[in-house]
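ESCALATION

Customer reports they have been waiting on this structure for their group meeting. Please prioritize. Original submission:
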Amino acid sequence: MKKWNLIKWNLIIDVDKCTNCNVCAVAVQDEHVGNQFPGYAEEMPKHGHRWIEIMRRERGTGTAMDVAYLPTLCQHCDNAPCIKKAPDAIQKRADGIVLIDPVKAKGRKDLVEACPYGAIWWNAEKQIPQHWIFDAHLLDRGWKEPRCVTVCATNAMTSVKVDDAHMARLVDEQGLQVRLADAKTKPRVYYKNLWRYETCFIAGTVSCLRDGQIECLAGAEVRLLSDGDVIETQKSDVFGDFKFDKLAGQSTHFKVIVDADGQTQMVDNINLDQSINIGEIHFA
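Update from on-call: job pushed to the front of the queue and completed.
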């Protein structure tokens, strides 16, 4: 096998850098609405399709709250469920890009449901399934990266064309993750800081009464326990705040214990279905 067959396209998305500007999505629409690219894709409908769609998630409440944005698009999987569903209509190129043949896939609405990422869209007018094609038509003409990467103002998107061993090193070095890892689709779209979107936090504030005034209490020891075991310990910051992040969003019961000024307070039975601001823990 020739070496160039081992060099494949990958996309890295930094969730921490995405600001929901939607310029990437607009670039895809500008490229494909009203334009046909024979052998790659039929024209994209003017309305209803979001081949790059940015999902939004709010975490927490009140003073402990943040928002994360997750660009979603075709993952160009090496073990793509859509290809298994229609191997005659969808191909995996040597460079890693997946393409849905607009002629052979005509009438195959079932392919929309085959994608666990919801990245295949149904064009009702033309009766074909469609997706983001990694701008393969541009790359084949000499472009160095897809349009969505070129227009991203915050550099949240990076395209990388390397062999799998090199990509594996980047995954380890940058702490990259894939979505729906349990599906074992082997996607070629990787996410940095995915925890911003997929995990939960427990936050709160420690205060005390001094000279008749309620003040923020810095330096209090705050412990997070699960099933009786301490899983993390922090000190409250100068504002009295603490935040335990990157916690699995599931029905797990947590306990927060705060030690300050020789006293101890506890918040028990915290059910973490979503990020929680447990509010103020006050020491008299």
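Sent to customer with the following note: The chain has a mean pLDDT of 95.
Escalation resolved.
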